[in-house]
Design goal:
Four copies of one chain form a homotetramer. By secondary structure, chain A is an alpha/beta fold. Chain A has helices spanning about 15-25, 35-45, 50-55, 70-75, 80-85, 100-110, 125-130, 140-145, 150-155, 165-195, 200-210, 215-220, 235-255, 260-270, 280-290, and strands at about 5-10, 25-30, 45-50, 60-65, 90-95, 115-120, 120-125, 135-140, 155-160. Chain A contains 15 helices and nine strands. In chain A, strand 5, helix 6 and strand 6 (about 115-120) form a beta-alpha-beta unit.
């Protein structure tokens, strides 16, 4: 059953996701403040709207894919936002990674208008968005989630249902919390081995074969940081944002997050050093530079 | 080519390793301060020696498997120790996890007597020792390492050569540094998710499928801590010891180890709380108790 | 020049502050959700109002003294709040310790009604409030600050002007950030000395005489924690709140706050352990208990 | 009662201390590996020895003042060291800041030769050494301490007796542990205030007047770091050494030292950044540079 889908936010992630939905046969109505990707999508068969409200007005499904909580809030609740166009019965799927409490609040407001919302943040980055192999982590009503499965399957490979509104965001933040911690701890631990005189390749092989192994080392750094590539990928400033959201969540839930908080502060320092636009594995390079060592495969 | 092997230290780990060497056809001469395992090994075909010196006196290979640096030092260099019995040309293989600088010092002393040493700490625990599936991480002269490969293969499955004396210990410490950090960070990060309202199984499944995955979660906790089993396995006090060695190594090499040092101090706190004899994944239980949550599969 | 002063929030701190204003000859109109202190103040000569709006309606000065940001927001901006009664030209002085950004926002809203606000948080605790020896840390328009100096002098001994709206709160948070860090670091550092075999009194004397001295040790703990008294004083949960505000401020300003963030997380742990109602120097006791030592003068 | 005093180690600290002893009427026999200060002391009336052994041979008191544990060990126990010249009944006073366990070990060895030792590290720096106003922190036998009081009073103003051998070193390390923590926490906390828009002088005045005050801010930084002076004073690399000793002591005593360990690792990072020869308040400057702010009085 092909659908009319409003899509707000067609940047690095949103654009290829929108193309995959077109490819799956859906009819897209797209909006972004940046005209460039709109033009590309138009040539790909999408209709271009002049606002979020317009994109939402004829849609069965509205998808938002934006950088931060405040952007999602503005795009959905703000002037000429989705809420001004959306009709009762429509499902809004926010696929951004944002503050779970903001996500829940927006869901509540939409719900009072007869509009259901799912939070459905993704992992897999630009590559996964293009290949349609994203992991999609969903919170919200389970029946609504099931109705949207074909939509999710057009964009991703693994789709997880995590419980009520906000839970998709929470699980995504926990995943990235692990990522941030691994980025910091891997840098210092491997640097220690190299500085102590072990060949990096040997160190890498043993750790990856053993109980200390992480996907961050084996799958992420192996093809990126350990090849000397620190271009994003996933920008340090986005990891910083997500760690900040995790730390805020821990504050709300009164969970002591010692290693997480230390990691967040160390990323704050990286920001101050001007490294926010690099891949979040830039932690590796900072230890290479600090200790005059190489950590390359 | 079957060999005469002196084996000093036949405890939880050493005993099954010695049995595997007997099974492989080698002739074992064993010594321990505890008579009980000696009796078992005697019935299994080993000869029992009255001291390390005696165990070493007729051996081509001498293996030591002991808890701490000071035990290895005493067993090899102390009164009636290996050094008093060992003949030039023999190879001493210390399979304990100890301070790399102590290991290097002992190797130097043995070398001056015409005796080569390898440091060859293992991972895989009691289960791996019994099954002969240990991972063995070797430092020392490469030719000597190659001569000993059949010995290693009788006890383990993956054998890694890591460079000169001490490097086996260094790589082992880095591996356990990752293990300790994961034990702490996994506890706090998953606790946050559960406290925020996510079902533990869902959280586990998503993290294990994603970029945040670790072997600690997927392979270690899944069959132990997440089943409510906190009996060792690998005792928290041994993890504490190894983290202490890693922090000391970082001090010597002037590597800033922020997350590692914080993790070490948190394990020191666990020791003070009397949890040293539990499995090192006891970190999970401390967060369950502190926050009144369950993290069980 | 005696004034009519509306006073909202007459709890542990606010009540004695209000009494000091009465003593200085001012005419007080007081409001609180708790009737008990209102009765006491009535007998002391104050008029009792039925709401914040009523307390503000005839006042030249309105003072608020409440626990948290949300209380101040409700008391000033909420239904029957100060804003509904206050007249243009009145000065609102919020003496609570709250989020600087909330403080600035409220000041902006009041300003648009022709009402000036000062943020004027205090240090010195209940004792200082009773004795009229509080330190008062003021942000806002400097002329307005000067007009209110006699009011401040009736309640405190040291009054500091810190710049525009919000700056009083910021400086207060920095002060408490030091306090929280000292509470944690003093506990662990002195515990180390005692555990290593030094008499506590000797340790105390030497540190207090030297470069490591802090007012926290010399003036605060000396008459409280080191006498075995852990009743507030200043509750751990309030310190936790203030540390949380400092960490949030650091997040907004992108300042890496490593020791501050670690301290905050350790206080979060104390909360989870149920120690929030104790004095914030309870850190001393947790180390006494953990290590089975005494730190008493 | 004027005495013959052997003095080994007459560098930045030792030289002015030796001059103060001469001024008090004692007869000095001095030794150092560096000939330059020996010449100066000779012109000041001291006798120059060719070794530690010779300096000790005719002395009633032998003082050592050296940078690190290994120097003290070599100077006292090594070839041509104090132990080779010293006579039973002599008192050896080591005024260096070293590992308490090394100090205790040396004291034990000297004791077996009929020589008593005191550990008597100092605070107050070069200025205090010159002015004879050092604080001297003494461990060892109390009667021996009393006999040496006139010697201590010639060099210092406050002399503290802290208990048996090693306790002087322990208390000194705790003092410097506070110093290191304050250097780190003061930098980040004040930087937050300034970055949030508070005038530095105001911030300084309020904190110094309040419960957050430290001698580090009021007495040390006020005349140094906050004037833009980061020349030692007390070098960051010496603070790093002392923090390392404190962390090692915590390891031996099984005291969890979370903030201390984090501070130590942050100083390790400063070392790696090449800042070891600066004053330990260089932490202030690193935050000024990182955040592009000024923290100057």
């Amino acid at each position: 059953m092909k659908k009319v889908i409003g899509f707000v936010g067609v940047g690095t992630m949103g654009k290829p996701m929108a193309f995959n939905l077109i490819k799956a046969g859906h009819q897209l109505v797209v909006y972004d403040i940046n005209p460039k990707p709109l033009e590309e999508l138009k040539q790909g068969g999408a209709t271009v709207a002049k606002s979020g409200a317009e994109a939402a007005s004829g849609a069965e499904i509205v998808i938002t894919m934006l950088p931060k909580s405040e952007h999602v809030e503005a795009a959905i609740l703000g002037g000429q936002g989705v809420i001004e166009g959306v009709k009762p019965g429509t499902v809004v799927i926010d696929m951004s990674t944002i503050d779970p409490s903001v996500s829940k609040r927006i869901a509540g407001i939409l719900d009072s208008k007869g509009v259901k919302m799912l939070d459905a943040p993704v992992t897999g980055g630009e590559t996964g968005a293009q290949a349609g192999t994203l992991t999609i982590i969903v919170g919200g009503n389970e029946d609504v989630y099931k109705q949207c499965l074909d939509i999710f399957n057009a964009m991703g490979k693994n789709v997880f249902y995590c419980g009520p509104n906000g839970n998709g965001e929470i699980v995504k933040l926990i995943n990235n919390l692990f990522g941030g911690i691994h980025a910091m701890s891997t840098a210092e631990a491997l640097a220690l081995g190299v500085k102590a005189g072990v060949d990096f390749k040997v160190l890498y092989d043993v750790i990856c074969a053993g109980t200390g192994a992480t996907n961050f080392m084996k799958m992420y750094c192996a093809i990126k940081a350990f090849k000397g590539d620190f271009e994003p990928g996933f920008m340090a400033e986005l990891m910083h944002k997500d760690l900040g959201l995790a730390v805020t969540l821990a504050k709300e839930k009164e969970v002591p997050l010692l290693i997480g908080a230390l990691t967040y502060q160390m990323f704050t320092r990286l920001m101050a050093e001007g490294l926010g636009k690099k891949d979040f594995s830039i932690t590796i390079k900072t230890f290479e530079d600090l200790l005059d060592i190489k950590m390359k495969l």
